[in-house]
Amino acid sequence: MTIQEFDTPDIAFMERCVSLARSGVxxxxxxxxxxxxxxxxxxxxxHNRVRCDGDVTRHAEMVALSEAQRTLNTTSxxxxxxxxxxxxxxxxxxxxxxxxxxxxxSGLRSPVMGGYSRWDILVDRGLSSRLPEVFxxxxxxxxxxxxEEVREAFRGRHPLIWRAIEARxxxxxxxxxxxxxxxRAGSGINLKDRAxxxxxxxxxxxxxxx
Length: 210
Ligand SMILES: [Zn+2]
Prior knowledge:
The chain is of the alpha/beta class. It is built from eight helices and six strands; from the N terminus they run αββααβαβαβααβα. It has helices at residues 8-25, 50-53, 60-72, 90-98, 125-130, 147-157, 159-167, 191-207; strands at 33-38, 41-47, 80-86, 103-108, 140-143, 180-181. The longest helix has 18 residues, at 8-25. The radius of gyration is 16 Å and the shape is globular. Mean pLDDT is 88; it is low at 176-180.
């Protein structure tokens, strides 16, 4: 997928994401960052906090998802887009599915750890078909957005380590056009999605998770 195929607002949010990733580098983190928007409006952002917090679960996407749920006061992020410098890993992909994020846009692919390229978590339909009250349909996914800028951020962090990452194809900038998939009709949220989101908030969250 080429940059021309990304919408201007998506590129702007991704630029913000890459810039944030660079600021994380200044704090000793690798340039992983995530930004969340809702209906075109900025909601929150986070860079990786694994090193700062000494906690491997503090991936940028996880931190941003937590903040978005707090900020929007809901666990259902159906109308939201998550931007990340690298394709979300398996852990983050599962959290993305459970928080019902509608779209995911990333820079580099992650063939070894990715929740899309390595495992099918982001596009798994079994989750949403068996438990639609919890998991919405797979999000729309676009990879390759500003991948050159993301590469530069990684290379700038540590050129030798980046060379090893590229040699082992841990993160790649391959874009053959096959990495845009959508489990949803367009980017809209259908009536069933809304009903299931409501069911989770009113029924599950109230009686099960309370
Ligand atoms: Zn992750």
